[in-house]
Amino acid sequence: MSEITYNPLVAGMEQIRGAWGWFMVLGILLMILGAVCVVFDVTATFATVLVFGWLLLIGAVFSLVHAFRIRSWSGFFLFLLSALFRGFVGYVLVRYPLIGAASLTLMLASLFFVGGLFRAISAGMAQYPRWGWAFVAGLVSAALGIMLLWQMPVSSVWFMGFAIGIDLFVDGIAIISFAAAAHELPARTAHQPA
To answer: What's the predicted TM-score (pTM) here?
Structure first.
């Protein structure tokens, strides 16, 4: 006589299979939102900067409260300085979203350039199996960074909204494919062991 054991992975897959429609709806909504962000990339960029600024301001308030709650600790001034810095950056992003978009795009462009070069050089030096893909990905990332820097300040107005839109659209596709795969899972019958 075989002993039936509980498998949480199988139970979880049954729940996912039962909710495949919700995943499908989420994927479609993400694709629509992503397409809207790509079409209205300037608006999406400024909305992103404003949301980021407000999140920093809210985080600064919580950090400030936390700093004064631990004022007897030797790290009080570091927490206070961190809260004030977050508040200042949040205020600048909310008050001057165009400057905030330019600053964030400049940081992203620098990250793409430096990170891409590092990836390409390290892949070329290590030459692990199929290193060519990492080398090409690094070159593409570095080229994207150069393109963004070359087109500054114009690229700062549209890039973040466009990038967020593409990310949302691709996430939507991934969730839709997951929902389709979950829907095609065979239903577990009562006589099958868990």
So the answer is: 0.64
